[in-house]
Specification:
- The chain is 70% helix and 0% strand.
- It is mostly helical and 132 residues long.
- The relative contact order is 0.14.
- The longest helix is centred in the middle third of the chain and has 34 residues, at 50-83.
- It has one domain.
């Protein structure tokens, strides 16, 4: 029986694991850790092997997709808050908060799924995908 891991060249998994850790620590650090992780991912993406490059791409995509949806939900919250003075903005205000909560859940689930692939020493299969 051949060992599948022995057939592949060794790639350093420490930096991608550190970036996943920084992403997971985003709430206690008020997203400062995510920005540091994003810089590390951009800096190491081109020099990484194919498996770890897929993780860096996945982490970069996770940040940008999350930030755009968070900005959209914040706009909903602000516009809904302003328009709630005349009661027509309350649904937008509530939808913005619900969407912001869903984005946080999506972000952490996505990070945990990527971390599971990293622990198994596998490339992330779909780094460009929207869900998981």
């Amino acid at each position: 029986m051949t060992d599948i891991a022995a057939d592949r060249p060794h790639e350093d998994r420490v930096l991608p694991a550190a970036v996943y850790g920084l992403y997971i620590l985003s709430i206690p650090s008020v997203w400062v850790a995510v920005l540091i992780g994003l810089v590390v991912a951009y800096a190491n993406r081109d020099t990484a092997g194919p498996r770890m490059k897929s993780h860096y791409e996945f982490l970069i995509q996770t940040f940008w997709k999350g930030i755009w949806w968070a900005m959209f939900s914040i706009v909903l919250i602000v516009v809904g808050g302003i328009l709630s003075i005349v009661l027509i903005g309350i649904p937008a205000f509530i939808a913005g908060w619900v969407l912001l909560g869903a984005i946080h859940i999506w972000f952490y689930v996505r990070c945990l799924v990527g971390l599971l692939y990293l622990v198994r020493d596998e490339a992330y299969p779909r780094p460009q995908a929207w869900l998981f």
